[in-house]
């Protein structure tokens, strides 16, 4: 949710990026704020990210976990109205990621609070958000909410509005924000259905590079769209060993991805998380040309080679490949998957 604001609810996003305009005194706000800061400040203008609320979000123990996520999002909205930036920081996981509208990433409660606080203090507008759907990707430990944010202003009849996505992880009995990003209306935009071929349930044949050979492992995958229309969610489960990650033995792994489409650029952004670290890494961004989609991750700032994900729609089956850059124009596959319908 925060992604819509310049520095508000979890992902400071410049108001310009969201094509959101409020009064001249508030021209750049974070979608995070918008969603989360119904009473807080300008920062909210960009977008209210739905942040996790500690124990309160889990009240009702035996209830549907997706409903618990909706409650967490709504509880966060109430907390942000009362406590401002402090509530946003409290809602964030220690390694939670906020995506700004300019593409920059902010990670962790302290960085989120610092990004949001200045805007929250000076915003004259009133920001609101409401989650409209929720889903669980890992049983009782990972899920997401999608919703609508809007701004109320005393000087305008109708303020800016938009949508957001917030991913939640369950930590110490509470739902916390692991990822927050703004969403754009995209249902009918060119490229918005590029991943339709991948929707459904799949059996997965993996091949992982280990020195000069490949090891084979099995997995299953489930890929679903969202009602909002700009997000494709993946829940992956299998056994695997990653030699480059110092894994001495194969282990069971839960993974998940959230793929967000931006109709302004025509690009998809892919966020991946697995239960080795329980955090979303740096995203991959790219698009499809025909039946092949290439998505790139710049890891120069992390001291690792650049990476590329390639998808290929084979008309009923699908191929996926993770490769690392090995030269000016060379890529070496280190993990491949063949998807066959279940």
Defining key terms:
single chain, about 350 residues, Nuclear Transport Factor 2, Chain: A, 2 domains, six-stranded mixed sheet, disordered N terminus
How would you explain this protein's 3D organization?
This protein has 342 residues and is mainly beta. The chain has 2 domains: 2-183, Roll (Nuclear Transport Factor 2, Chain: A); 196-341, Lipocalin, CATH 2.40.128.20. Helix content is 13%, strand content 43%. It has 4 helices and 16 strands. The protein has helices spanning 31-36, 65-83, 85-91, 109-122, and strands spanning 92-99, 105-107, 126-138, 142-152, 161-171, 174-183, 200-210, 213-225, 231-240, 251-262, 267-274, 284-289, 292-297, 307-313, 318-325, 331-341. The strands form 2 sheets. A 10-stranded antiparallel beta barrel has the order 7-8-9-10-11-12-13-14-15-16. Strands 2-1-6-5-4-3 form a 6-stranded mixed beta sheet. A hairpin with a 2-residue loop joins strand 12 (284-289) and strand 13 (292-297). Helix 2 (65-83) packs antiparallel against helix 3 (85-91) and helix 3 (85-91) runs antiparallel to helix 4. The longest helix is centred in the N-terminal third of the chain and has 19 residues, at 65-83. The radius of gyration is 20 Å and the shape is globular. The relative contact order is 0.13.
The amount of beta strand, in percent, is 35-45%
CATH class membership of the largest domain: Alpha Beta
Q: Nearest-angstrom radius of gyration?
A: 20 Å
N- to C-terminal separation? Answer: 34 Å
State the domain count. Answer: 2
| Beta-strand segment tally | 16
